[in-house]
User: Which sequence fits this backbone?
């Protein structure tokens, strides 16, 4: 069997993902959460402009160009692909940004005003690009909270599951009340800071 | 805020997915499972050429052109997008086709020789198209076992979970030994057959 006949190549696809990343990097920089609510899903990035020591040392704070996110995420409308379109018209991306804003506000050593975001909405059929475009952004920028420091996007694990360990993010930025309930052995603050400041981004 | 500035449109993306579907429809038709094992993930379709009465009546059997699949599926290599590439070189699509062949062989009223398949392998970065291309194929062809008749792709639920109901597929095509262990109330055979033969594909 000649397997070449079964392998699909598409140079056009790479260029579509690249265009999406370019478009993303030219979307307006907004406050987090954005002032107005909006519907739909897509990808977003958070940028940090404050002076948390380890982040300044590691060089992960954003300059004026806002091209080095500290976190990249996606919000995919449920049912987007199955024709069971239950919440295509739900504010899934906006809601996610609000949750992130809440996590940052709760953190004792971060200020929400030192964060801003970009976001890009993708309707059908471009919504199929949400996953690959998020992946491309993470691959390109290796944002700190997606790579070295784990746990920013976590949710309250809920009753009966507090035997987990605190995430690195929660050790670094204490404040989320549910994280304080976790009883597992936490990673060491010093080890996390050393990791961040040693491996320059 | 002007949201248009945040909405990404890409006519090129639609054309990429269309090219992939066209390429797929021109891949060689193979026995299921294919004679030789092969590595990688992608999408596949099964075609039925037998004379199971309800399927003949519903017009879901394949003519010589093999353009109306009875089932479409995907096999996504784990870790394909996270740079934790653990099994990109695993035969995930081939393995899935073997599992399907086994299900069909076990069915008392189906013959494996009445099935054939197409498959399309997608390596990085095209592997990001696996999900949207599978979705496009299902949207285009509404294959019977993806739409009206549920359960072909199911696995043995395992010990402690046999209180589930039998799937429509397992009622229609009895044979998988684990399906016989399910103790939930099964859908009625007559109702399934009526559904298939009434709603012409």
Assistant:
């Amino acid at each position: 069997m000649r397997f070449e006949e079964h392998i699909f190549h598409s140079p056009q696809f790479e260029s579509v993902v690249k265009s999406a990343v370019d478009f993303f990097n030219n979307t307006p920089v907004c406050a987090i959460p954005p002032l107005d609510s909006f519907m739909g899903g897509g990808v977003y990035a958070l940028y940090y402009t404050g002076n948390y020591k380890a982040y300044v040392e590691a060089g992960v704070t954003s300059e004026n160009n806002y091209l080095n996110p500290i976190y990249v995420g996606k919000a995919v409308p449920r049912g987007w692909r199955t024709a069971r379109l239950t919440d295509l018209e739900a504010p899934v991306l906006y809601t996610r940004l609000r949750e992130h804003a809440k996590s940052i506000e709760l953190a004792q050593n971060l200020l929400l005003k030192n964060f801003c975001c970009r976001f890009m909405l993708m309707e059908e059929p471009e919504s199929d690009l949400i996953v690959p475009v998020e992946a491309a952004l993470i691959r390109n920028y290796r944002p700190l909270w997606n790579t070295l420091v784990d746990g920013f996007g976590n949710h309250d694990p809920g009753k009966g599951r507090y035997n987990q360990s605190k995430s690195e993010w929660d050790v670094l930025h204490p404040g989320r009340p549910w994280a304080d309930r976790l009883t597992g052995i936490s990673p060491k603050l010093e080890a996390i800071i050393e990791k961040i400041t040693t491996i320059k981004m």
User: Anything to note?
Assistant: The longest strand of chain A covers residues 42-48.
